[in-house]
Amino acid sequence: MGQYSIKDLELLSGIKAHTIRIWEKRYGVITPDRTDTNIRTYCDEDLKKLLNIALLNNNGHKISKISKLKYKDLCAEVEKIGITESSYDTYIDRLILSMVDLDRASFEMLVKEATDKMGFEGTCIHVLYPFLQKIGIMWMANSINPAQEHFISSLIIQKMYAATDKLYTPEVKKKKAIFFLREGELHEMGLLFYRYLMTKRHVDAIYLGQSVPLVDLKQTVEAHKPQYLVTALVATLHEDVLDTYLHSLSKSFPNQKIIVSGYQISQFKRPIPKNIIKVDDVHQYIDYIDNQL
């Protein structure tokens, strides 16, 4: 289904491209196809095998011994690690495997196991968030199959909604925040987690969803008078367009603090209006809302 470069394998497995080449030549662990211009390409089976090898190697198994295992024995050894090892990287590698295989049962088992050990917030911060960063880089580079990305994204979004719903209580909250995505923006996973974190801190977190026109946002803000607006900017934007949008938000909502996250704002270097709060990652977001609330 997928076709990966050696750099893709390096990103997903954590094994340096130089090391992968040595393992190919010395141990024959995977055998890439080559393009007409002699560039290595790898399939899903290559990726799965390398991820399993990386899991074993990172947990003390020597590559010389790993390379002699048949694939079914390799998978069996990985399952043993899954039972006894709870490092963040191990969970991330196993999630990548579940994505490549479109294996919901494996995904559900991994998330439940991680949540039982570190809670939903800890699972998102230490496992799902870095996992999504890896996948997001590949998605923007068109290296990952859209079906795989959509499969895993939909499962994580379901978890976000379910976890947030469990936090709901009917009492009136002291503060309000409106969560929205600008017109044309559809990448909501990060925003849904930020909504969860705000809800957990007893804020009335109103979620408007994807592609919200500015006029509709203005009407909602006028009706509910929130203290915060929260959005994410992931889809590619020209710097001038982004600059104009930020100033439009600032001018339209001078009485709100506007928290902006996402890849596009993290790369933005121009001055921003005073009521725009730029957060580059989830840790910065948590620090900010904890100080505010």
Describe the structure.
The protein has 293 residues and is of the alpha/beta class. The chain has three domains: 1-85, Multidrug-efflux Transporter Regulator, Chain: A, Domain 2 (Orthogonal Bundle); 87-166, Methyltransferase, Methionine Synthase (B12-binding Domains), Chain A, domain 1 (Orthogonal Bundle), CATH 1.10.1240; 168-292, 3-Layer(aba) Sandwich (Rossmann fold), CATH 3.40.50. The chain has helices at 6-13, 17-27, 44-58, 63-66, 71-84, 88-100, 104-140, 146-166, 189-200, 214-224, 239-252, 263-266, 282-292, and strands at 3-4, 33-34, 40-43, 176-182, 204-212, 228-232, 257-261, 276-278. The protein has a five-stranded parallel beta sheet with strand order 5-4-6-7-8, sandwiched between helices. Strands 1-3-2 form a three-stranded antiparallel beta sheet. Strand 6 (228-232), helix 11 and strand 7 (257-261) form a beta-alpha-beta unit. Helix 3 (44-58) packs across helix 5 and helix 6 (88-100) crosses helix 7. The radius of gyration is 22 Å and the shape is elongated. The termini are far apart.
Compose a concise summary of this entry.
The chain is α/β, with parallel strands linked by helices and 293 residues long. It contains 13 helices and 8 strands. The chain folds into 3 domains: 1-85, Multidrug-efflux Transporter Regulator, Chain: A, Domain 2 (Orthogonal Bundle), CATH 1.10.1660.10; 87-166, Methionine synthase domain (Methyltransferase, Methionine Synthase (B12-binding Domains), Chain A, domain 1), CATH 1.10.1240; 168-292, Rossmann fold, CATH 3.40.50.
